[in-house]
Amino acid sequence: MVVSSGYSQDSSTDYPTKKELLKLINKQNISAKDKINNLRMLGQYYMSDPNDSASYYFNKGLLLSKKEKDSFNAMRLYNRMATLQIYYEEDLDAIKFTDSAFTYANPKNQKHFASIAYSHQIKAEALYYLEKNDLALENYLEANKYLLKDSQNDVTKTYLAENYSDLATLYLETDNKKTALVCINKSLNLSKPIKAWWEVGEAYQFLSNYYFEEEDYNRAKIYMDSTKTMFERAEYQEGVQIMNKHLSYIYLKEKKYKKALDNYIPLMKEDKKQGVIFTLVDDYLFFSKVYTEQGNVQQAIKYLDSAKFVAKESINHLHTINISRQQAEIFRAQNKNTAAIGELKNILNSAEIKEYAETEKEITKELYELHESTNNTAATLMYYKRYNELKDSLSDALAENKFNILQSEFNYNELNSKLESQEAQINYALEERKRLKERNFFIIGVFGLLVVFFIIYYFKQRKLNKVKRENLLAKQEVLNVKQKAFDDVVAFKNKQITDFAIHISEKNDLLDKIKERMKGIKVINDSHKQIVQDTIHFINSDMDQNREKIQLYQQVSESNDSFRAKLDQLYTNLNEKEKKVATMLRLGQTSKQIALQLGISSASVDNYRYNLRKKLEVPKGKSLKVFIKNI
Known about the structure:
The structure is a single chain. The radius of gyration is 35 Å and the shape is elongated. The protein is 81% helix and 0% strand. Among the domains are: 17-140, Tetratricopeptide repeat domain (Serine Threonine Protein Phosphatase 5, Tetratricopeptide repeat, Alpha Horseshoe), CATH 1.25.40.10; 152-235, Serine Threonine Protein Phosphatase 5, Tetratricopeptide repeat; 571-631, Arc Repressor Mutant, subunit A (Orthogonal Bundle). 28% of the residues are buried. The chain is built from 25 helices and no strands. The protein has 631 residues and is an all-alpha fold.
């Protein structure tokens, strides 16, 4: 997953130059909106500037946006600042900025959709780096939702393609390779037809990295060449530089040391010109590794010393760990196994290593291998045991991540289903309000006509019978309208019950499949086995409750109509919730069952029962249920 400024929220890529922008922001007659846009674009130019100039211009633009009450540009600038924090590896700060962006977002304004999607995308990226994959997935899916709601032009498709590439990376992280490849194919299918070369390049880069991890280096090279071609078309030279470095890493894996060095030398020269510290540390470490494997220990030490010197200006814990690991490799190459063991032990004893569990596992493996080579049986067994514990722990974490990803997808889909249902209900209510308004206008119109007719026929006694007849017909029409509206309400409620039953049935099917899959899991650990059994029991309980709900709603549907009509006729002082409680009491439901169906507490049900006794005027000492059944 790569941080890039390519995922912009602008529909045009024809930006002024840095020099032109600096002149434009100092113009006296420039509008506030144009100045905000120019400050934002200027900040983007300085994204890789070590002097923090990007933050300066983004903050200036943000202050002006707030002053002008321009929520759209305030949101975009917060997104830019979040992207900058990702670039600086300050993931928690990036999340804070995206949350600030959300406060300015209007989820009903289509103009905001792309920016809202970008906020979710950059927050997902930060959560991914913080190893909170389930939350990252939710934000990626939320980004997709807004992008799919937006107009499907080339810009939106470009954003979608990038989001699918990020989703592919996330799924691959949790060892869900099949879904990862599906996502990357979606990205390619979206980006190729619209010639979004940057996004095509990122997809090919993913495939190159995928086959590199699979140790299929020939395929990795093929996709690497395709990536470079796409990045060159997109004029993304930094991306071309990255892929050239990856080619050197492949040469190193293939033990083609000369090719690895020859390919990397011009790349390091370019990095020295740029002066980015963390890039130079990685460069020097690469050269040290190549020379170590080549057997040229003196050169390996020379480049390691350079890495140590440059890393002093960095506060990157991973660099410190990698430098120590390379030092240990050099000691091993010099047959100084004791010194290598000491170096690796220092890494394991550092507080920072806990942030890098995979690295900790690899170092533990190296230690037990070193102790084995020195015939230290006790230490070998100790580190071998620790290595297996870390390996099992990482496997458990991966399994938990997979489960969390599945759970997040399920929760997200369920929530979306509920929101869509609520939206449908709101739309129906608005439509009903519109119909009511039209009906009121109709009634008023009829009433006005009746008044006119009454006045006219008051002075024309001969037409009195005709007036009465027309008056009766008008009343009958009003009653027909009311009856039709009542029939529509009943039909809609019956449809709701049917839809609910279908939804519960589908949910039960899904829970049943999950249960069967969990039954098929082979669990050795007793505590894990208990967790699986408890989960299966929970699923069975939930499915039983769902069946009870379906049965209850069917009972309510069958007997509700006539009883509700009687309540409406005899007790006009009851509100809707009280009518529902009375209906369920008539069906013999307990307070606990009523609370479950209405989503309220048992105490609230008792309050409704008290109000019903009062409003229905139930005699003291007589059962409320019996009284209601006799209505």
